[in-house]
Automatic annotation (TrEMBL):
GO biological process, one term: primary shoot apical meristem specification
Protein name: CTLH domain-containing protein
Organism: Erythranthe guttata
Residue ranges of domain CTLH in the record: 34-92
PANTHER family in UniProt: TOPLESS-RELATED PROTEIN 1-RELATED, TOPLESS-RELATED PROTEIN 4
Database matches in SUPFAM superfamilies: WD40 repeat-like
Length: 1126
């Protein structure tokens, strides 16, 4: 029904109730199913009117709709059966058993015989489970409490339990108003217009006999303008109420509920009377209904509510901006691809990796693009740096704690202590990876960079093989999803290993899982070996979808990178393979791609890249398709040596492609950008552990050579081989010995000449004023600076032949970007003393907005138009640091001049709480998702840790100021989390320190010499392997983050012209979000410099040896005094 029909039904229901048409009221409630009258339901249950109870319920749900509904009907029929037995009416009881209760035997085979056995008892209370059954009245009351809980938890009743607030006799009032309005244009209106004139369009005779046009021209049931709501400003950062279930999802999940609800354990159906304590777990969902009553039933007050719901109370012109203005698109930048060229495909063989056992699964690291994870048929997992061909780490299959596993697994291990890898996958941030084995087990490893690989979790996940795994973020927590031979899908907490959900419904082993989300709706697609496709929400309500894959094939599914297009690829039992795109709105195949074989060997694997390409391994070849063209784009054999159906995997950017070989190896293919990546990484890797790479990166390459006869337990055991060249373990040991000798004569890399690095001062036509804050955009294609005079500057790199990625680089100058209006993003500085202000800003995740302050009000700017969207929080106190909540862009943490931290909800313009713990202004804030905490730092040299659950202070500690050092009483202390989200960097003018957040323990500290200059700023590199620090003598130092060991020093003479009359130095430093060796400096003279190592070098200096004690001394710069607090 239309929205107007719904409103009319409520008006009619009120009218019928006022007129005492009771039976008609409840018939309309049931037939419209708009309002479930819980009071009437209670009344009929209390009176034992069971036929009417079920008849009324049938207007809203059926027995088999979901588990909640099934339990509701079961409890009612069980009570009816017990009452018949209690009266001694066995004939009635048998009838109820046969007609009403037998239906539940299909869901619980043991239940029906158990209930039937009650007929044989003199008193059913002799049954232990029913021994506490009282009289009929109390039993009905207890059951009614349980039923109400089930109804409130049942999503089919959501939005149907509250009647809108209407004034008395509202329908009569509206009819009278309409009658008056209909006659108000009459020249001679009747004093008492007849109600019958509403039955037709009213006309009024004119003196000359003409007819006046009727003011009523719309049909009663015509469309009604949508009430309330303001056009959202694109995809972020301030989203309004949860979006309803999208059309595309609704097509697949006909019964899916748009509102996330609590997973309420319905409990098994049984004889036990409802447990009041347990039933208290069934609570009304906190999430407001999608059809918000404030929007559906406007009153004078709701008009005000609607206006307040606008983010910040933005001006009307802002809210009318077209939705498609975001994400931001700058001149010269285009996200669309007009034509897909085969030249963009990774087709050139650039490396051969000798894995030494058959490859079963592969996955590229999501951040470090040249890091490849490989799993094999003997349970071996390896991490490869493909640019150098070095196998960084290897692990063999081993059950970590056999005693904690099921007896089934223990028994299988006795006969054969080995297992094949079925799937390997990195977590979205690359800090974890999962391994699914052919025997019960899933392993999660924590990856800390380099060869630092640690056991994280062992999960005895399934009975039989674990066929697939994937990561997802339901309820904002990282989970791992598994499926297996036992026909089940399970969801596990990736931090604790606790099982969150079990989904059952497949009739065959589950082959693959594909989690995804659309507009706040999280769901999982699953496929079984019988070709069935199902979809699940994170609840206990069963599958929302039941479709057949083309050809009933064993299928995997994958979305395009932007999440808008769904594809699947599978192979039937007869060997016919299908690769298709799905129309999600209909749950039907949209297009079938041509070119796959009709007699494939094994299941064909596929992957997607760049929202543009599909790739599959089939018929000893690699086959490529343009997503928008069903015809095969091209196919290659990668110089031969491929199996019939090779494993295939794209890197995240689609520049590299890994493909398994028939010789137990992996070939790496690259496009032009991928070749550049490989060369860059190869140059960085040094000669110490590099294996041969195909030197010319030409089209010609060799298949993987023979296996290396070494112990696979050695991380150096399997090296790259080319043209039969293989290295054995003695060679490796010899090289390690050489490296140990080199480490003894290691020397700090000093860069003092402009020819020793790549440096670019960004062009600037605006007034040069010292740079106070600096950041790269999350895309890595722009740099945003905030100057002392409260003006922001944005530099944007364009795509060109010299810069094919459009990312920031020192090789190509960017454009100082301004909108056509010529306006500048300028912070409010009215009544502000700039010398005392502490400027701050924070960038939204999609680079669309920047929130900024320079001692005055906080301003919100649109990054495309530079318009000030709004200002808020006028001082005092002034904001001194800003940070977006990682799980909700509507929430920001604001460090204040008065030493407090305010947790502010921007959507409702409200301070949720104030955190008090510092003694001076707050100068740093950092969130950790992994630890669910916020770390704050202040000018009081104190660090505080706050829990995100309740915002209570968990710990605090003052910095250890190095002996003999005194610091500025208002010196800023900044904090930044490591990529692992468990350790964080502390930056103070007297020191750099690494802290363990969970214990708030300083595990490493570095301080410059007393006589040297002070630290002005520092930051982690994007991979957290390095730390860049700037000093007030103009120098920059690079440290290895593990141990704070100094690696390289950059002198100011290498990037600034010598000028004795002026003292220029960097105030701020920022690291590129994806290029680990690029950083930028903001200088006191208003300049911004981008710094990179020479392309031939590829990295900053060489890795220092691991040793304790005082590090190397430095001339004209801070010395590496290592003050460990361990």
């Amino acid at each position: 029904m239309s929205s107007l029909s719904r409103e009319l039904v409520f008006l009619i229901l009120q009218f019928l109730d006022e007129e005492k048409f009771k039976e008609t009221v409840h018939k309309l409630e049931k037939e419209s199913s708009f309002f479930f009258n819980i009071r009437y339901f209670e009344e009929t249950v209390t009176n034992g009117e069971w036929d009417e109870v079920e008849k009324y319920l049938s207007g809203f749900t059926k027995v088999d709709d979901n588990r909640y509904s099934m339990k509701i009907f079961f409890e009612i029929r069980k009570q009816k059966y017990l009452e018949a037995l209690d009266k001694g009416d066995h004939a009635k009881a048998v009838e109820i058993l046969r007609k009403d209760l037998k239906v539940f035997s299909t869901f619980n085979e043991d239940l029906f015989p158990e209930i039937a056995m009650l007929l044989t008892l003199q008193n059913f209370r002799e049954n232990d489970q029913l021994s506490k059954y009282g009289d009929t009245k109390s039993a009905r009351a207890i059951m009614l409490v349980e039923l109400k809980k089930l109804i409130e938890a049942n999503p089919l009743f959501r939005d149907k339990l509250q009647f809108p607030s209407l004034k008395n006799s509202r329908l009569r009032t509206l009819i009278n108003q309409s009658l008056n309005w209909q006659h108000q244009l009459c020249k001679n209106p009747k004093p008492n217009p007849d109600i019958k004139t509403l039955f037709v369009d009213h006309t009024c005779g004119q003196p000359n006999g003409a007819r006046a046009p009727s003011p009523v021209t719309n049909q009663l049931m015509g469309p009604l303008p949508k009430v309330g709501g303001f056009p959202p400003i694109g995809p972020g950062p301030f989203q309004h109420a949860p979006a309803p279930l999208t059309t595309s999802l609704a097509g697949w999940m006909v019964n899916a509920n748009s509102v996330p609800h609590q997973a309420v354990s319905v409990g098994p159906m049984g004889l036990t009377p409802p447990n009041n304590a347990a039933s208290m777990m069934l609570k009304r969902p906190r999430t407001p209904p999608t059809n918000n009553p404030a929007l559906d039933y406007q009153t004078a007050d709701s008009e005000h509510v609607l206006k307040r719901s606008r983010a910040f109370g933005l001006p009307e012109e802002v809210n009318k901006m077209p939705v498609n203005i975001l994400p931001i698109v700058y001149p010269g930048q285009s996200h669309a691809h007009s034509s897909n060229s085969a030249d963009d495909l990774p087709k050139t063989v650039v490396a051969n990796l000798n894995q030494s056992s058959a490859v079963k699964s592969m996955d590229f690291h999501p951040v470090q693009q040249t890091l490849l994870l490989v799993g094999t048929n003997i349970g071996e997992i390896s991490v490869w740096e493909v640019s150098s061909g070095e196998r960084i780490e290897v692990r063999n299959f081993k059950v970590w704690d056999l005693g904690a596993c099921t007896m089934t697994l223990q028994a299988s291990m006795v006969n054969e202590y080995t297992a094949s890898v079925n799937r390997v996958m990195w977590s979205p941030d690359g800090n974890l990876f999962g391994v699914a084995y052919s025997k019960h087990i899933v392993h999660l490893y924590a990856y800390h960079g380099g060869n630092d690989l640690r056991n994280h979790l062992e999960i005895d996940a399934h009975v039989g093989g674990v066929n697939d795994l994937a990561f997802s973020h339901p309820n904002k927590q990282l989970c791992v999803i598994t499926c297996g031979e036992d026909k089940a899908i399970k969801v596990w907490d990736a931090v604790t290993g606790v099982k969150q959900y079990t989904f059952e419904g497949h009739e065959a082993p589950v082959y693959s899982v594909c989690p995804h989300y659309k507009e706040n709706i999280q769901f999982i697609f699953s496929t079984a070996v019988d070709g069935k496709i199902k979809a699940w929400l994170y609840d206990n309500m069963g599958s929302r979808v039941d479709y057949d894959a083309p050809g009933h094939s064993c299928t995997t599914m994958a979305y395009s990178a932007d999440g808008t297009r769904l594809f699947s690829c599978g192979t039937s039992k007869e060997g016919e393979s299908f690769i298709v795109e799905w129309n999600e709105s209909e749950g039907a195949v949209k297009r079938t791609y041509l070119g796959l074989g009709k007699r494939s060997v094994g299941v064909v694997q596929f992957d997607t890249a760049k929202n543009r390409f599909l790739v599959a391994g089939d018929e000893f070849k690699i086959k490529y398709w343009d997503m928008d063209n069903v015809n095969l784009m091209t196919s290659i054999d990668a110089d031969g040596g491929l199996p019939a159906s090779p494993c295939i995997r794209f890197s995240k950017e689609g520049t590299l492609l890994a493909v398994s070989t028939s010789e137990n190896g992996v070939k790496i293919l690259a496009n032009t950008e991928g070749i550049r990546q490989m060369r860059s990484m190869e140059n960085r890797a040094g000669a110490s552990s590099k294996a041969p790479i195909i030197g010319t990166f030409g089209a010609s390459g060799s298949a993987a050579g023979p296996s290396v006869g070494t112990d696979r337990n050695s991380p150096m055991g399997a090296m790259i081989s080319l043209n039969g060249d293989s290295r054995n373990l003695p060679d490796v040991k010899s090289r390690i010995s050489e490296e140990m000798e080199k480490s003894k004569i290691w020397k700090l890399t000093e860069i003092s000449e402009q020819s020793q690095l790549r440096s670019l001062r960004l062009p600037d036509s605006l007034l040069s004023v010292r740079i106070i804050r600096l950041i790269y955009t999350n895309s890595g294609s722009s740099i945003l600076a905030l100057a002392y005079n409260a003006v922001h500057k944005l530099w944007k790199w364009q795509r060109s032949e010299r810069n094919v990625t459009g990312k920031a680089t020192a090789a190509v100058p960017p454009q100082l970007w301004q909108p056509s209006s010529g306006i500048l993003m300028t912070n409010d500085i009215s009544e502000t003393n700039l010398e005392e202000a502490v400027p701050c800003f924070a960038l939204s995740k999609n680079d669309s907005y920047v929130m900024s302050a320079s001692g005055g009000k906080i301003s919100l700017f649109n990054m495309m138009t530079f318009k000030t969207m709004t200002t808020f929080m006028p001082p005092p106190p002034a904001a001194t640091f800003l940070a977006f909540h990682p799980q909700d862009n509507n929430v920001i943490a604001i460090g204040m001049e008065d030493s407090s931290v305010q947790i502010y909800n921007v959507r409702v313009d409200e301070v949720k709480t104030k955190l008090k713990g510092h003694q001076k202004r707050v100068t740093g804030l950092a969130f950790s998702n992994a630890l669910n905490c916020l770390v704050s730092s202040g000018a009081d040299a104190q660090i505080c840790v706050w829990s995100l659950d309740g915002w209570e202070k968990k710990a605090n500690k003052f910095l250890q100021i190095p002996s003999g050092r005194s610091s500025n009483p208002l010196a800023q202390t900044r904090v930044q989390f490591h990529q692992d989200q468990t350790q964080f960097l502390v930056v103070h003018e007297t020191q750099l320190a690494i802290y363990e957040a969970s214990k708030l323990e300083c595990i490493k500290q570095w301080a410059p010499r007393e006589s040297s200059s002070v630290i002005t700023d520092a930051t982690y590199s994007c991979d957290s392997q390095s730390i860049y620090a700037s000093f007030d003598d103009g120098s920059v130092c690079l440290f290895i983050s593990a141990g704070l060991r100094l690696r390289c020093r950059i002198s100011p003479t290498s990037y600034m012209p010598s000028n004795p009359s002026s003292r220029v130095y960097p105030l701020v430093i920022t690291a590129h979000p994806t290029e680990a060796n690029q950083f930028a400096l903001g200088l006191t003279d208003g300049g911004v410099h981008v710094m990179e190592p020479l392309e031939a070098e590829g990295k900053w200096g060489t890795v220092p040896p691991q040793e304790n004690g005082t590090g190397p001394s430095m001339s004209h710069a801070p010395a590496a005094q290592d003050n460990s607090s361990r």
